[in-house]
Amino acid sequence: MKQSGTTALLQGAVQDLASSVVSDLHGGGHAPPADPAGGPGRDLELAAARVLGADLLMPALLHRAPLTQDRIGLVTGTLDAFPPRPQAAPTVLWSHWAMARAAGLIDVSGAAPEAPDAAWIDGVPWPFLTHQLAVLAPLALPGLECAVTRAARDRTLDVARGFVRAVRRRDWLQAAGAGRWLATLEKVPDTLGLGTGLDFVELMGGSDARVLLQVRAARLLGTGVLV
Amino acid sequence: MTDTRLLHTVGVRAMEWLWAHRDGFRLEPEVDPEIGFLERFKPIGELALVCKVLFREGVAGSRQAELARRLLDHVWRETLDGGRMLVRGQRTEPISPIPFEVYLPFRELGYSRPEVEEAAVLNHRLHSWTAFETTPTRRLGLSAFQRRFGLDPRPPEGEALAATWLARTPEPWTVEGHIAYDVTHAVFHLTDWGESPEGLPPRLADYLAAWLPVWIDDWLDLRRWDLLGELLVVDACLPAPTLDGRAWAAFAAAQRADGAMPAVRETPAADGDELFDLVYHPTLVAAFASALATSRSLTALAQAS
Lengths: 227, 305
What we know:
The complex is a heterodimer. By secondary structure, chain A is mainly α. Chain A has two domains: 1-116, no CATH class; 117-227, no CATH class. In chain A, 60% of the residues lie in helices and 0% in strands. Chain A is built from eleven helices and no strands. The longest helix of chain A is centred in the first third of the chain and has 21 residues, at 5-25. Chain A is globular. Chain A starts with a helix and ends in a 5-residue tail after the last helix. Chain B is an all-alpha fold. Chain B is 65% helix and 0% strand. Chain B contains 14 helices and no strands. Chain B has helices spanning 4-20, 42-57, 62-79, 84-92, 98-108, 114-125, 127-131, 136-149, 157-162, 177-190, 202-221, 225-237, 245-254, 272-304. Chains A and B meet through α8 and α10 of A and α11 of B.
């Protein structure tokens, strides 16, 4: 199916932004376009930033990597431009909260608002749990507790099952997100083979910068780095 | 946990279909030697194994048990000619283990053909029987069958098990269809087809308890009923079977009203021997899974009361 022009542009912007975060995670060097006129439009940039959410700030959180004014503006602009409606889906509410919290932690904005309700994830079947956690992979940061990280910890085996399911179904983004959660969790069954599993996900799906970002984050978090 | 009646009904319907299509269990004595006379023995051996499970578990209703007994009598007397066709097969391919594999469950059910036993005892002494190249899972099965027959397994079952995929508990996300069948059959052999769940070493039971739910979920969504049925058997062999409600409901719904279970998706548009060859195996598997799951479900009910 042919994509609409806007969708393709947004996907391209998301890929560029994800690539720049991957680069920053490895010590930087991939600066955003110097000439704003040569980059995507502002609305597109904000929409792309919303897709990546708190992961935009992951290099700053984990490495204290310096933030450009451009990146700070992108984060605050995204938070302002997309305030979630109260009745929005839980993952939307939590994604916004995760970004606000990350911005607060590195003094880009004020303190984060109160965390959303987490009851939606209680007792859900493991495939749905993994899907939701993968969408909320930016919350998988050791040292930063919230109700979602507690839910993941309580159901480590179920998240591991979700990783297997995602790999079997060739859903590399979900697999990478689940793999990142597992990298932050204890008591992951050895038989899962998480390390080679992440390598496999990168080999098969790493041409997507969002997949690559989650795999690289997983490896970094697996080394014991803390926020 | 699934309604016991649903578990049971799948097996009742499967046995009705197998009885109605009993002539499909047939041999082809004039077959091209390149194909081999022994190729058509496999369904008969599988039928005997499943009927044995049915009697052993004691959960069959009187009609189902009667059909199973009549089916066994039919294939033993008519198809195998009182075991003489097994002897003929053995004389056609003297060191083939197939006649022995087919014979063993019949022997355990009280049928007898001494010439097959004599050949098995001799073959067991041959280095060739131990050396002939086959998959590790089948090798494990042959060792288990030798033990059941009363022979010292060659190689010992522990050694045979070590070579299987399951024994090495590999990455669960690498499982493909043919690997999954190796896993199910390794479990069948280790537990004597569900008779001795304790034959599954705890390390492997833990591995399966962790990952089997993913595999069931996967092959359920792919509507591969034959493999799903075997995975449901494995579930029933675990210390704490899940008797997965979603999987069993879909498995039961996939079964045709006359009891035939398609291997994949829907029952194919075929009839006669062609249809039999396409669906006899998943239908046997349905009877097998139903007997074990019904038994486990009743055990759980008894323990709860």
